[in-house]
Request: fold
Amino acid sequence: MAVPLIQAYKVGRYIATQKLRGVKRYPLVLMLEPLFQCNLACAGCGKIDYPKEILQKRVSLEDALRAVDECGAPMVSIPGGEPLIHKEMPQIVAGIVARKKFVYLCTNAILLAKHIDEYTPSPYLTFSIHLDGGRERHDESVCQEGVFDKAVAAIKLARGKGFRVTINCTLFSGEDPDHVAAFFDEAMALGIEGITVSPGYSYHHAPRQDVFLGRSASKRLFREIFKRGRSAGSRRRWSFNHSGLFLDFLAGNQAYQCTPWSTPTYNIFGWQRPCYLLSDEGHAPSYRSLLEDTPWDHYGVGRNPRCDNCMAHCGFEGTAVNDAFAHPLKALKAALRGPRVAGPMAPELPIVYEGRPTPAVTIPVTEVRRASRQSDDSRASSSAQ
Ligand code: SF4
Ligand code: SF4
Reply:
């Protein structure tokens, strides 16, 4: 199991309570994006394509903790941008830990050695280190040499100080399953608790569009990787930070629809509709409005062209967890046997979005940029006057 018993117990109890209460849509992981600024510019990143004044904005400590309380999810993932740039990050993390919520602080690790003593080891705090592959692959993915070595040094440092550490790995096109398997071995040997893995979502705002995998290619790749994880004589013991059924979904064996409300996203614009990945669909002023006013049936595979290539855990882990609660024996089998790596794949969901108007865009990035250019222009012309 990739998470400590206390976390499995508390999260399981939370889900069971929601089910008993008949709550239809409940959050599992709050995605708290405290800033979009980063000290890297990765090829597949869809988060940093904002003008300077947006990149300089921060979610304040008060707003961050208010979002945690408003949403009530038992786990909080803090991605970015790079969260360690945020000056109030230690206080934000301490506030969430004090609420006995499990925090995953996602970082590219470049600043971790500098800031690590601002944090206290706790069963409620995990550093989730961005690592997309071995040295060559990761440095290529983040478009900068030397980052892999820094991340590995940071993992060793954090483990040495008694922190929980996982890695957060995104797979792109051109992956070699042998290399990925060898990388998972290497990562586990560093003493990490588990691996979070997803095929990269094809962000419209990513600098490169040729790096993303389609769903069919993702499923084939995961089957090949999982085969290597159980090959005859293998001593591999990969621990994934996912449910057995989500891994089975990645291997193409589950026809799951997305559950976007399971991972609500809060950032400097408010509550992002509908999910962590789609940033052009508008923002809600409150968590209640996000839940009640978002046209959820416009999103998901086959329901929206922007969802067509998505197999991300922020959309489908919640579905897998729901399935596990509805079908515990199936979940137990998937957990014990691992994902099926041969035989027919589950059918794709039908396309139903043709003819449906695209939902209104409330804060399009292009408009933000245009507004920024206009204000730069007007500042330039007034200073010239
Ligand atoms: S993927 Fe992460 S590390 Fe890379 S630029 Fe984006 S936010 Fe920064
Ligand atoms: S499938 Fe779900 S998680 Fe993926 S982009 Fe669409 S709404 Fe977001």
The pocket of iron/sulfur cluster (ligand 2) is lined by residues 258, 260, 274-275, 277-278, 299-301, 306-307, 310, 312, 314-315 (CB under 6 Å). The two ends are 66 Å apart (CA to CA).
